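Hey team,

Filing this mostly as a record. A colleague (T.K.) asked me to run one chain through the structure pipeline before their review meeting, and I want the input and output archived in the tracker in case anyone asks later how it was produced. No errors, nothing strange. Just documentation.

Input sequence:
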Amino acid sequence: MQNMTTPSVDQAIVPAQPAAHSTSHPDASKPIVALKCACCGARFRGRQFNNQDTGWGLGNCCVTHVSRTDDLARTYGIDGVHYNLPQLDQPRFLG
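Output structure:
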């Protein structure tokens, strides 16, 4: 009989990975703004990354799709700082 307090190999408890973002990142102080996804054109809220055209970035909608990119951080910025932010409210676009 298996001890109920010790997880089996199938049930091993894996600690959550720390978030990739940090409030100590220099861009974390930049404002969260309305952007368009560089992959699909969807609207989202994130921080402008210096390697993307103004108003464009990586939307939460495409993070999984482009996460296989070798140069993800160089192209789209830092997860949780520039993209993949909690969507607390919907972006408001003028025009």
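Quick notes for T.K.: Confidence is low (pLDDT under 50) at residues 6-22. The CA atoms of residues 34 and 91 lie 5 Å apart.
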